[in-house]
Specification:
Number of helices: 17
Oligomer: single chain
Number of domains: 1
Structural class: alpha/beta
Helix content: 25-40%
Largest sheet: 6 strands, mixed
Strand order of the largest sheet: 1-2-10-7-8-9
Shape: globular
Distance between the termini: 47 Å
Order of helices and strands: HHHEHEHEHEHEHEHHEHEHHEHHEHH
């Protein structure tokens, strides 16, 4: 994306050999103008035919038009719901708020949309082993899709602060899991070095075929809005894969005439893992890595590999970046959970980010907002119980739903239920 150097689509490469920059999958815009139409994508809604029953491969022409359908590795993924949430909209300060729940994917996170693209490319290339570094969600997705494709999955974890729900998935799906005494950023360096020496295919978001799948999130959301573009798209920012993919997807939709304007994008980072926010405050000229610490483990990344692509997305969409505290994240998560939707902590950045940007006057109350929930509530059950038991270090359970203890008598139960002040969500 920096120097314009081109490589054949079947080349195993993660960065440009000429300039060291990030790689993009480049589509033939003139061809897509003829075949990628609203009518085609609408016609495929609800089909039972593979691979178009996937919420990624429904848009095959925009994802990987030349791949043989027989090589596509799909669960199927996508087809996640877009919820209109009036109570959460009122809490955030806007009239219209939709939440796109990517926790409804097969392994419980948005990573499945990227992994179907990445593992499909691995199959195209004849790869037998795939690997990633992970804070959790990527590991679960890679393990599942590798198992489904009949190839070996390998995962490098850090050796602390990995949510049990995510670690358990990777182990259950049969991946080779290695806990390394290093943070995510160092693990990503290691997995790239090991992969190069052992002939293993890397499936972190530095892999451009991953991001092609992830851009389907925003294509699907706009299709669910009957191709009407929202004013804002708000999402969490960690390694900035979604941020990069969304900008690319929107740019392509606009170039193809499938949308008539570009929405604005807001990337929300945790205060303890905020290198993009810090760069944004100084004009996005450069990024300085940080030591990441946040309760939102899915975005606990201090040196995001997709920084330059995220900056490009911000420029394409006239976007903004905001930061939120762990206390704000957990309170917003409690609000989302109480609606019966549920999400992992990182997802809640979207909701509290909207609230914060409304208070600053950046998002206007009358504007339509789509927020992204990235993962399922059971991805991090420990965080749920600690918050509601008010035992989370440095975080108050402001919206705690206390677990009551009772003797096995009608009198004791009546005492709890009669004393409890019922407060509907």
């Amino acid at each position: 994306m920096d120097c314009g150097q081109q490589y054949p689509v079947d080349t195993i490469i993660y960065s440009c050999e000429k300039c060291g920059g990030l790689l993009d999958v480049q589509h033939d815009t003139e061809y897509l103008k003829k075949v990628a139409t609203r009518a085609l994508f609408d016609q495929r809604l609800g089909t039972l035919d593979a691979p178009y029953n996937s919420g990624v491969w429904r848009y095959k022409e925009m994802i990987y038009p030349d791949v043989d359908n027989g090589l596509v590795v799909s669960r199927p993924e996508g087809n996640t719901n877009l919820y209109r949430t009036p109570k959460l909209a009122a809490w955030a300060g806007v009239e219209t708020l939709y939440l796109k729940h990517e926790g409804e994917n097969p392994t419980g996170s948005f990573k499945d949309r990227g992994m179907t693209g990445g593992v499909t490319q691995a199959r195209v290339l004849g790869i037998e082993r795939v690997a990633c570094a992970s804070t959790g969600n990527t590991s679960a997705s890679l393990a599942a899709y590798a198992a489904w494709a009949g190839i070996e999955g390998i995962v490098f974890f850090q050796n602390k602060q990995i949510a049990a729900g995510k670690l358990a998935q990777a182990i259950a799906y049969g991946a080779t899991g290695i806990q390394v005494d290093a943070d995510f950023d160092r693990n990503l360096e290691l997995v790239r070095e090991v992969a190069q020496s052992l002939g293993i295919y890397v499936l972190n978001s530095i892999n451009p075929f991953r991001l092609e799948g992830q851009k389907s999130i925003i294509i699907e959301a706009i299709q669910q809005l009957r191709w009407k573009v929202p004013d804002w798209i708000v999402l969490p920012g960690g390694n900035l894969g979604n941020s990069s993919a969304f900008g690319k997807g929107l740019h392509e939709l606009y170039s193809l005439g499938l949308i008539d304007r570009m929405p604005r994008m807001a990337i929300i980072q945790a205060e303890g893992a905020n290198p993009l926010y810090r760069s944004y405050k100084t004009g996005l000229h450069e990024m300085e890595p940080v030591h990441a610490e946040t309760v939102a483990t899915a975005i606990k990344i201090g040196n995001p590999v997709n920084y330059k692509k995220a900056v490009r997305s911000l420029k394409w969409t006239d976007g903004v970046v905001e930061e939120v505290s762990d206390q704000e994240i957990m309170d917003a998560k409690a609000m989302i959970d109480r609606q019966g939707l549920g999400c992992e902590p990182a997802s809640a950045c979207s909701l509290v980010g909207v609230q914060k940007l409304v208070r600053k006057g950046i998002i206007k109350p009358h504007e339509t907002v789509v927020g992204i929930l990235t993962g399922h509530v059971l991805k991090d059950p420990e965080a749920v119980m600690q918050y509601h038991n008010d035992t989370m270090d440095g975080i108050d359970g402001n919206y705690a739903n206390t677990l009551h203890q009772s003797e096995a008598t009608i009198e004791a139960l009546r005492g709890i239920l009669e004393a409890k002040e019922l407060t509907p969500a």
